[in-house]
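Continued from yesterday's entry.
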Amino acid sequence: MNPMRAVIVDDELPARERLRRLLAEIETVDVVGEADSGQRAVELVETLSPDLVLLDIQMPGLNGFEVIEALQDPPPVIFVTAYDEFAIRAFDVNALDYLLKPYSRERLAQAVGRAQELCGEDRDMGASFGPLLETLASEGRYVDRLAVRDGERIRVLDVEQVDWIDVADERVLVHVGDEAYQVRRTLTELEKRLDPARFFRTHRSALVNLSKISEVIPWFKGSHKLRLSSGAELDLSRAQARALRKLLEW
């Protein structure tokens, strides 16, 4: 059997070096790349299509969870964490593996063995991560950043920058000023992961950043339009107008 092709992701060089050294002792693993940031991790995973990612959680830019959010087809992942107790509970609930720093050779080998079993089962890892992300959302761990497509590159946006998100030509687009960026998530998935105190569903195909609304304009037959601070206008359905009226108390 060919060795698993692995990518290491950690913003700290000593941590990457130690992990690489320990993995070199496991004959069934071949490290094919390293990334020092979440943004670079997304690009590297999509370029190399590894069999396994060893992914740190606490990183600047995109953290480990946000890397998973950004990947269309995530491979098996061994999460690495130093102190995130809630993450450990979430992994336990959703049967995903993790390494708690400092970890031993034996614990690493056990985690790799589990990842090999997952690969052998040919499981849909995207579906497997769904319960974890839903658990994070249920505990109020909403995303603060979004990884979007900017040509061939990955761009990281703070959610406060986003004006609205909609679906156009079967693509989900994140709008920031005059720019629109594609994101590899459905609108429903994004709605679950964005803080409902910040983002509101205006109709079936759009979410708006509540802080960007500058005016609510009455329209035909009980519908409304929303004018944003950027000057853009969005349709607001009658049903959602009632919900927004309660939310904003207008």
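--- second protein ---
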Amino acid sequence: MITNIYGQPVYTEQDLFDLYMEDPNRTFISTLITKDIKFDPQLELQTVPDVIKHVPLSLSIEDFDKITRNNWFMPKEYKEFDIAKYILNLCTHEEEIQRAGKELLMYEKRGMLVLLQYMKYLVDTMRKHDIVWGVGRGSSVASFVLFLIGIHRINSLYYDLDIEEFLK
């Protein structure tokens, strides 16, 4: 699957076949953008959020981004998940609580708590499907919150990494 300039998924015949093989009971929507195949409009796919289905294609990329910025492709339970409470509950001592709290405020100030919810969903999905990902790279390892979620395996408190290196 690829995406067009508006972030909408474009499916090939192989992509649709893979989706079907993953879950034969999945329903398809007729608004899927497909490439090089004839699509049966009686099929429905519910993975495309409603906000994407009703966005006019005449929008600029910037306007499209403003409309869809907080509409991540994740299940409802993750969109409603209290990520801050979850992260703080993972902390085992005061230093971790202070660091996680500081970072959460920084994420919130930047409107990025939804990103953390998505990261939780991503990690859960990868674990569920036994997908292996890296131990961490770049400035993201300075985030203790990302360590707690499981994005990377570098404890920034242990290595005394400054969160300012990540969230500048």
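The chain has two domains: 2-68, 76-165. Residues 139 and 165 are 6 Å apart (CA to CA). Will compare against the first tomorrow.
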